[in-house]
Specification:
55% of the residues lie in helices and 8% in strands. It has 324 residues and is mainly alpha-helical. The protein folds into two domains: 211 residues, Rossmann fold; 83 residues, Tyrosyl-Transfer RNA Synthetase (Orthogonal Bundle), CATH 1.10.240. The strands form two sheets. Strands 1-2-3 form a three-stranded parallel sheet. α4 crosses α8, α8 crosses α9 and α11 crosses α13. The two termini are 32 Å apart. The chain binds tryptophan.
């Protein structure tokens, strides 16, 4: 069976953009593949952060992921810093990674251009990501478009290491592009992201979700209630595709095109679909939060399984490289 690896930053509670864009897909993949999912706290420390918040954000992310449907009996969920081999392999991969490739990464250039002094950890971020994936010799990596360049770098690093040591130990992992298109924030301007404050939390109550949905940006062509719209340009329609059944999605599109519904009608139906899907997730999250020892246990077991695999990889890598 092919092995899947993916990682997510410990940003605290998931928002519906992360959920539709990544995690909902992960939940389905765990039935078909051997899956390893990682909360990447070593990546999270490459930017500014509050040490006193990080542990809570990591815990909240674990709660969200489990509540969303990751099942510790079907997949392995763990926290990166609990498996020291990630950083150990990252150092080794640094020795076969061309500096120019790191400097060419779009994400690095974006972030570096906004900082006064750039830290080496930001530049080397994709090397740690390559180590995450190669440590488990994963075949497939479910990611969004924005991670494709990092994946290409991972493939190159694997290729170079294999070539330098004359073995074909590391497979070249392929990206598994997430089917859902990128969810915009409720301002309709940019990708939904916590730092932009345009998100809906996965665990928010229906009333709080409605407060955000009601004023959310729709198709700008629908100025008056009677103006027909184009569903494809409306973020609310894309949320329907994430949360509503196909018949509702088709109906919503027809009502938008014919101006049969106003945007508020459409949003009310979306809220119903969201409540139906997110209600049980919210309940599971409340239950998990009340049992922090269970979360700790799940993460410890996940890390233990990962360490077994990671130790095996490191033993082979070190032997091949002449390390003691
Ligand atoms: N860089 C990824 C992101 O920001 C997170 C990540 C870290 C990751 N390690 C990974 C994703 C390994 C896939 C595989 O989304």
């Amino acid at each position: 069976m092919s092995r899947i690896f993916s990682g997510i930053q410990p940003s605290g509670e998931l928002h519906i953009g992360n959920y539709l864009g990544a995690v909902k897909n992960w939940v389905q993949l765990q039935d078909r593949y051997e899956c390893v999912f990682c909360i990447v706290d070593y990546h999270a420390i490459t930017g500014h952060y509050e040490p006193s918040d990080l542990r809570q954000r990591t815990f909240d992310m674990a709660v969200s992921l489990l509540a969303a449907g990751l099942d510790p009996d079907k997949c392995t969920l763990f926290v990166q810093s609990m498996v020291p081999e990630h950083t150990e392999l990252a150092w080794i991969l640094n020795t076969v990674t061309p500096l120019g490739e790191l400097e060419r990464q779009t994400q690095y250039k974006d972030k570096a251009s906004r900082q006064e002094s750039v830290l080496a950890g930001l530049l080397n971020y994709p090397v740690l990501q390559a180590a995450d994936i190669l440590l488990y010799r994963a075949d497939l990596v479910p990611v969004g478009e924005d991670q494709v360049q990092h994946l290409e770098l991972t493939r190159e690093v694997a290729r170079r290491w294999n070539a330098k040591f004359g073995v074909s130990y590391f497979p070249e992992p392929k990206p598994l592009l997430t089917p859902a298109r990128r969810i915009l924030g409720l301002d309709g301007q940019a990708k939904m992201s916590k730092s932009l404050g345009n998100t809906v939390g996965l665990l928010e109550e229906p009333e709080a979700i409605w407060e955000k949905l009601r004023p959310a940006v729709t198709d700008p062509a629908r100025v008056r209630r009677t103006d027909p719209g184009t569903p494809e340009v409306c973020n609310i329609y894309h949320l329907h595709k994430g949360f509503s059944d196909q018949a509702t999605v088709d109906h919503v599109a027809a009502q938008c095109r014919s101006a049969g519904w106003g945007c508020i009608d459409c949003k009310k139906v979306l809220l119903e679909s969201m409540t139906r899907e997110l209600g049980p997730i919210r309940e599971r999250a409340r239950d998990l939060e009340a049992h922090p020892a269970r979360i700790a246990e799940i993460l410890a077991q996940g890390a233990e399984r990962c360490r077994t695999m990671a130790r095996e990889t490191m033993a082979a890598v070190k032997t091949t490289m002449g390390l003691v």
